[in-house]
Amino acid sequence: EVQLVQSGAEVKQSGESLKISCKGSGYSFTSYWIGWVRQMPGRGLEWMGVIYPGDSDTRYSPSFQGQVTISADKSISTAYLQWSSLRASDTAMYYCARPGIHMITSGRYYFDSWGQGTPVIVSS
Amino acid sequence: QSALTQPPSASGSPGQSVTISCTGASSDVGGYNYVSWYQHHPGKAPKLMIYDVSKRPSGVPDRFSGSRSGNTASLTVSGLLAEDEADYYCSSYAGSNSLFVFGTGTKVTVL
Predict the structure, then answer these.
(1) Is the minimum CB–CB distance between A42 and chain B shorter than 8 Å?
(2) What residues of chain B lie within 8 A of the CB of A62, using their CB?
(3) What CA–CA distances, in Å, run from B91 to A72, B21, B36, B74, B110?
(4) Nearest to residue A64, comparing CAs of A75, A53, A48, A76?
(5) Which residues in chain A are contacts of B9 at CB distance < 8 A?
(6) How far apart are CA B42 and CA A42, in angstroms?
(7) pLDDT, tens digit, for every residue of B32-61?
(8) Blockwise average pLDDT, block size 10, chain A, 124 residues
(9) What pLDDT digit, counting tens, does each position of B65-88 carry?
(10) Residue A114 to residue A116: CA distance in whole angstroms
(11) Is B97 touching A (CB cutoff 8 A)?
(12) CA distances (Å), origin B4, targets A4, A62, B96
């Protein structure tokens, strides 16, 4: 069974750094891209970026380029989303999600597995 | 890349059908066969319901169907059940620079 298990809720102050995680299991972690999706309170889903753990190729949404860093450690099948300096506007639920296998080469542009979400609260 | 446009809400009685639209542009919805739909119950992980415009993943009831005409995709839920009450989001491939774009979301209420 494919599972994406995310790290727990975070409460931080503005200006602090943060790294949240998403551990994949039940599939070949290095064969699938993995992405991050933001949902701000009362708002819709927003795609942030994806990474291919096999070679660390990373693609960002233009809206999030330079605002966050996506990384992965294939030795422990874990992807990360990182901020160097949080803002109150980063308060949101963050989901990791796995696109279809060989997303780019085979045109599988959908997310077939999702993590449970990590709530991040940033106070000013 | 702007979010795809969905109606904020839709509703229907049990057993009826409801159709949700998702309007984009030729650079996303209309340009590629990569539209997907997700069901999101608050507090839970989103669930893939439709991919590649009209394909259903294994385990998704055939009450859910997808289609597209021009730059507008649609999700139809037939034979509404109470458990179908949720938020629904469309998504589309948006080219090599943006990859994905989501819709604004539609809250479906089963009356």
Answers:
(1) no
(2) 1, 97-98
(3) 24, 12, 5, 11, 23
(4) A48
(5) none
(6) 11
(7) 999 999 999 998 999 999 999 999 999 999
(8) 97 98 96 96 96 95 96 97 98 96 85 97 95
(9) 999 999 999 999 999 999 999 999
(10) 7
(11) yes
(12) 27, 16, 17
- The three-class DSSP label of residue B50 is strand
Strand residues in B1-111 grouped as ranges (E): 9-12, 18-23, 35-40, 47-50, 64-69, 72-77, 86-93, 100-102, 106-110
The answer to whether the Cβ–Cβ distance between B104 and A47 falls below 8 Å is no
Question: Is A111 in Cβ contact with B38 (below 8 Å)?
Answer: yes
pLDDT at A100: 83
The single residue listed with the structure tokens 């989103």 is B46
Summary mean pLDDT of chain B? 96
Q: Do B36 and A59 touch (CB under 8 A)?
A: no
